[in-house]
Design a protein that fits this description.
12 helices, single chain, globular, about 325 residues, about 15% strand, binds glyoxylic acid, five-stranded parallel beta sheet, alpha/beta, seven-stranded parallel beta sheet, 12 strands
Length: about 325
């Protein structure tokens, strides 16, 4: 009998072709974006594999309802939506998608940074309203990136992809990471390791590229924001709860920092309403990997993780059970 795979979200189909050929794959019904948690809970007992999305909680209750489940193939590099230690206890393999998300997420960070520092989205907005923009040489002043220092917090794949972009833009690179990276990587980007507080006080741009876990919750709060330069900007393309969003609102109100570029928010899909007041905040709704190409690549990648796991044939991007 064919193995059964449950996909929680209705994604573009081409990337799933191999998976659909080999297994019995269930997608949400046409016209629906996704299954609800309760629907998945009702169905999961019959499935051998689950493809979850970064915003879909895979908790103890769900895994306890899934006696056949062997693999959770997460459609994301981040897996904070999954109780990985419980999956490990139950012998369930968890996998993620590091390769396809690295470059687009670094693009998003760079895009937010440019849009913020050159006031691109603010001026675009104003130009659409008659009389709302001043066309004067000393109006609309932004910040240059060339020669400035970017502090990258989380020097993994995405952090390094951002370092490559920042270096091309003529920036100096400092970084903070749980462990210092190889000296070859430091040399490649001429990146200098710094303790967090020092990074915050010397950087003109602080970019968050670390995973979300207990250690990184509110990594940037009131104290950390107060260490940043007044002309510094904060970029977050990682996970919302890395930043204490209320503290960020206050820091912006008190002009403790120059601005922020955010692709993720602390309390779900939307920012705190107070953030909407600021022209010096550029926001996108967690679209770091949202390109046509990457959506196809991620579908193929989550599929390959499942196929290679069941067939023992080729690499699987394992989060646990190495
Ligand atoms: C996106 O947020 C991801 O974790 O890949």
């Amino acid at each position: 009998m064919k193995k059964k795979v449950l996909i929680t979200y209705n994604m573009l189909r081409p990337g799933y072709a191999d998976l659909m050929e080999k297994y019995d794959v269930t997608f949400p019904p046409e016209g629906r974006e996704s299954f609800t948690y309760d629907e998945v809970l009702d169905m999961i007992s019959e499935y051998d594999a689950l493809q979850s999305m970064f915003n879909f909680p895979v908790d103890k209750k769900l895994m306890d309802a899934a006696p056949k489940l062997k693999i959770i193939s997460n459609y994301a590099v981040g897996y904070d939506n999954i109780d990985v230690s419980y999956a490990t206890q139950k012998g369930i393999q968890v996998t993620n998608t590091p390769d396809p998300v690295t470059e687009p997420t670094a693009d998003q960070a760079m895009g937010l940074l440019l849009a913020l520092c050159r006031r691109i989205s603010e001026l675009d907005r104003r130009l659409r309203i008659p009389g709302a923009v001043k066309v004067e040489l000393l109006a609309n002043l932004g910040l240059s990136l060339y020669g400035k220092t970017i502090g990258i917090i989380g020097m993994g794949r995405i952090g390094q992809a951002l370092a490559r972009r920042a270096k091309a833009a003529g920036m100096h690179i400092v970084y903070h990471n749980r462990h210092r990276v190889d000296s070859a990587i430091e040399e490649k980007y001429q990146a200098v390791y710094l303790p967090l507080d020092e990074l915050l006080s010397v950087s003109d741009v602080v970019s968050l590229n670390a995973p979300y876990n207990e250690e990184t919750y509110h990594l940037i709060g009131k104290r950390e924001l107060s260490l940043m330069k007044e002309q510094a900007v904060l970029i977050n393309t990682a996970r919302g709860p890395l930043v204490d969003e209320q503290a960020l609102v206050e820091a912006l109100r008190d002009k403790k920092i120059w601005g922020a570029g955010l692709d993720v928010f602390e309390f779900g899909d939307y920012p705190l309403p107070a953030l909407l007041e600021f022209d010096n905040v550029v926001m996108t709704p967690h679209t770091g990997t949202q390109t046509i190409d990457v959506r196809h690549e991620m579908a193929a990648y989550v599929s390959r993780n499942i196929i290679h796991f069941f067939e023992g044939n080729g690499p699987v991007s394992k989060v646990n059970l190495k």
